[in-house]
Amino acid sequence: MPGQDCVKSNTALKIERRGRVVILENQHPPHNRMTLEYMDELERAVMSLQDDRDVRAVVIMFGHCLGGGLELPLACHLRFAASEGAQIGLLEKQKA
Fold first, then answer.
1. For the chain, which terminal residue's Cβ has fewer other Cβ atoms within 10 angstroms, N or C?
2. The sheet that has 21-26: what strands, in order across it?
Protein backbone atom coordinates (compact mmCIF):
# COMPACT_ATOMS: atom_id res chain seq x y z
CA MET A 1 0.00 0.00 0.00
CA PRO A 2 2.58 2.62 -0.95
CA GLY A 3 1.45 6.17 -0.37
CA GLN A 4 -1.59 5.14 1.69
CA ASP A 5 -1.98 5.62 5.41
CA CYS A 6 -2.28 2.39 7.37
CA VAL A 7 -1.75 1.14 10.91
CA LYS A 8 -0.80 -2.38 11.97
CA SER A 9 -0.61 -3.05 15.68
CA ASN A 10 0.78 -6.20 17.22
CA THR A 11 1.22 -6.86 20.90
CA ALA A 12 4.81 -5.63 20.91
CA LEU A 13 5.16 -3.29 17.93
CA LYS A 14 2.88 -0.69 16.35
CA ILE A 15 3.59 -0.05 12.67
CA GLU A 16 2.08 3.05 11.09
CA ARG A 17 2.61 4.30 7.55
CA ARG A 18 1.89 7.92 6.66
CA GLY A 19 2.75 8.35 3.00
CA ARG A 20 6.53 7.93 2.77
CA VAL A 21 6.96 7.84 6.56
CA VAL A 22 6.84 4.56 8.48
CA ILE A 23 6.59 4.74 12.27
CA LEU A 24 7.62 1.73 14.36
CA GLU A 25 6.60 2.16 18.00
CA ASN A 26 7.44 -0.05 20.97
CA GLN A 27 4.22 -0.97 22.81
CA HIS A 28 5.62 -1.96 26.21
CA PRO A 29 5.23 1.16 28.38
CA PRO A 30 6.46 2.43 30.69
CA HIS A 31 9.89 0.87 30.20
CA ASN A 32 9.57 -0.20 26.54
CA ARG A 33 11.51 -3.38 27.14
CA MET A 34 12.86 -5.22 24.12
CA THR A 35 11.42 -8.72 24.39
CA LEU A 36 12.19 -11.51 21.93
CA GLU A 37 8.71 -11.03 20.47
CA TYR A 38 9.40 -7.32 19.95
CA MET A 39 12.80 -7.98 18.35
CA ASP A 40 11.29 -10.57 15.95
CA GLU A 41 8.54 -8.15 14.88
CA LEU A 42 11.03 -5.30 14.54
CA GLU A 43 13.35 -7.41 12.38
CA ARG A 44 10.49 -8.37 10.04
CA ALA A 45 9.37 -4.73 9.77
CA VAL A 46 12.88 -3.43 9.06
CA MET A 47 13.60 -6.19 6.53
CA SER A 48 10.40 -5.31 4.65
CA LEU A 49 11.69 -1.73 4.29
CA GLN A 50 15.31 -2.45 3.39
CA ASP A 51 14.80 -2.17 -0.39
CA ASP A 52 13.17 1.26 -0.08
CA ARG A 53 16.01 3.70 -0.78
CA ASP A 54 13.98 6.68 0.46
CA VAL A 55 13.66 5.30 3.99
CA ARG A 56 15.82 6.86 6.71
CA ALA A 57 15.81 5.54 10.26
CA VAL A 58 14.95 8.23 12.80
CA VAL A 59 14.38 7.49 16.48
CA ILE A 60 12.62 9.63 19.06
CA MET A 61 13.54 8.69 22.62
CA PHE A 62 11.37 9.44 25.66
CA GLY A 63 12.63 9.15 29.22
CA HIS A 64 15.52 6.76 29.81
CA CYS A 65 17.45 5.11 26.98
CA LEU A 66 20.32 3.27 28.63
CA GLY A 67 22.65 0.36 27.97
CA GLY A 68 21.36 -2.17 25.46
CA GLY A 69 18.29 -0.01 24.89
CA LEU A 70 20.54 2.62 23.30
CA GLU A 71 22.07 0.25 20.74
CA LEU A 72 19.04 0.38 18.43
CA PRO A 73 18.93 4.21 18.37
CA LEU A 74 22.67 4.28 17.67
CA ALA A 75 22.01 2.31 14.46
CA CYS A 76 19.56 4.97 13.19
CA HIS A 77 20.41 7.90 10.92
CA LEU A 78 19.03 10.53 13.35
CA ARG A 79 18.32 10.46 17.11
CA PHE A 80 16.19 12.90 19.12
CA ALA A 81 15.54 13.11 22.86
CA ALA A 82 11.92 14.24 23.13
CA SER A 83 11.50 14.77 26.85
CA GLU A 84 13.10 17.03 29.42
CA GLY A 85 15.38 15.14 31.72
CA ALA A 86 15.91 12.33 29.22
CA GLN A 87 18.77 10.08 30.27
CA ILE A 88 20.78 8.58 27.45
CA GLY A 89 23.97 6.60 27.88
CA LEU A 90 25.95 3.39 27.76
CA LEU A 91 26.55 1.80 31.12
CA GLU A 92 29.94 0.22 30.55
CA LYS A 93 31.73 -1.21 33.56
CA GLN A 94 35.41 -0.54 33.94
CA LYS A 95 37.71 -3.52 34.41
CA ALA A 96 39.50 -3.56 37.73
1. C
2. 6-9, 13-18, 21-26
